[in-house]
Design goal:
This protein is of the alpha+beta class. It is 32% helix and 23% strand. β6 and β7 form a beta hairpin.
Length: 277
């Protein structure tokens, strides 16, 4: 036994032997590591996918989901692919997004259903009112005005001397939505082509009153005028651009007294009459 251990010790102390063992160990490590990486890359994994095209704001159910075996390498190339169907069921397709048939589900395409308002009215601040402007494919420049864009509203009319007025009326106003004749958002889905019929804007109450009065004056048009990307990226204050046109509009409409003040005054008069009696 001692003789065997002595031979083994001399064998291991040989530099050539050590070198050979190191080379063999290195090759073994490379071989095992390479095979592990290859097997990991080509091993199939089950990924959920959309069995049919899913439109914007669709709430996803288990019936919408199928499963396919794909290479792990395909999945690993995109960290946004959702691998667990439990993270999909009950979620809602993002507004303005369509999930194509046979597509994987991505984080950027779905959200919690309670995070998306069902109506643009939900986002209107206090003291603001929703103003709608009738448009068509031509006045939206071939459907080139999108929700979130900041545009201008121009005024076209005829003054008291029968001269044409054409100027900017409202500067830097945000488009809240673009709707078709059925009240559906034009850009809500790419699954069908929708024709714009109205633009929606949330404006302060006094501006809403001014715009509605302008619409009721005969021979007047309010025209949407889109601007460039920088105009939207760096929006200015939404404001009346022409005091002259504003005064013209107001001169054509009656000033209605505050009925609450009138009622209170009458009540006070009645009280005074009762005191005198």
């Amino acid at each position: 036994m001692g003789n065997l251990l002595s031979k083994l010790k001399r064998f291991l102390e040989n530099k050539n032997t050590v070198t050979i063992l190191c080379v063999i160990a290195g090759i073994a490590v490379l071989y095992i590591g390479y095979n592990w990486r290859v097997n990991s890359a080509i091993s199939p994994t089950s990924i959920p996918y959309a069995k049919t095209a899913l439109p914007s704001r669709h709430v996803i159910t288990s019936d919408d989901i199928g499963y396919m075996e794909v290479s792990s390498a395909v999945v690993n190339r995109s960290s946004n692919i959702i691998r667990n169907s439990n993270l999909i069921i009950g979620k809602e397709v993002m507004y303005g997004t369509t999930i194509p048939q046979n597509s994987f589900f991505y984080d950027s395409a779905i959200t919690d259903s309670n995070l998306q308002p069902d109506d643009v009215m939900a986002d209107i601040p206090n003291g603001y009112t929703l103003f709608t402007l009738s448009v068509d494919l031509h006045t939206t420049y071939g459907n080139s005005i999108y929700p979130g864009n900041y545009i201008d509203l121009w005024f076209k009319g005829v003054d008291d001397y029968n001269k044409i007025m054409y100027t900017n009326l409202i500067r830097s106003i945000k488009v809240s939505d673009v709707r078709d004749s059925n009240g559906q958002s034009v850009f809500e889905t790419s699954m069908e082509k929708r024709t714009p019929s109205e633009l929606l804007f949330a404006v302060p109450d006094d501006m809403y009153s001014l715009l509605k009065k302008a619409q009721y004056i005969g021979g007047v048009e309010i025209i949407p005028v889109p601007r460039n990307r920088n105009y939207t990226a760096n929006p200015g204050e939404t404001e009346v651009a022409s005091d002259y046109v504003k005064e013209f509009i107001l001169s054509k409409t009656a000033i209605i007294p505050d009925e609450n003040i009138s009622t209170n005054t009458n009540d006070n008069n009645d009280e005074n009459n009762n005191v005198e009696e």
